[in-house]
Fold this protein.
Amino acid sequence: MSIVSVNLPTRSGITLEVRPVTEADEPALAAFFDRITDEDRRFRFFAAAEHVGHEQLKPLVHTDHFRTESWLGINKGSGEIVASGLLACDGPLDTAEVAIAVCANHKGKGIGWAMLDFLARQAEARSCRRVIAIESRGNHAAIEVEREKGFRPEPFEGDPTLVILSKTFH
């Protein structure tokens, strides 16, 4: 089910080229994560780190291209990587988890919205019944976007600092 590349319009008029990450993209992906804010890096990886290293990038560049897929969102106008999105489905393909990061200088332009819609469609195309995002309760911007897109909050058992936002497909 691997997708080569799609053009994804945003509400601000930016068109993203969204394509799967390859092993050759590891240095560019590392540079992307170096450019996002420390807070966004912490929200994405649930760890405070100045740099995302090879061990954290390995699952993003080595995927099975069905249950797990990692995408780059590239601004077609500038050629710059402005977003990263991950879809990880559970074994029975019942639930898919999504994780998205967007460069600070591209926030508020609809990129997170477009990537979330894209990842949810990918989960649904894999016949997943539900898509979830696990968020730090402090990540108000992501929680707001997900709620606006129809995701409902649920408690994260065992960790009151986290919340699950879920959306069920009909």
Observations:
- Helices lie at 26-35, 38-45, 54-61, 111-125, 140-148.
- The chain has a mean pLDDT of 93.
- The CA atoms of residues 1 and 66 lie 6 Å apart.
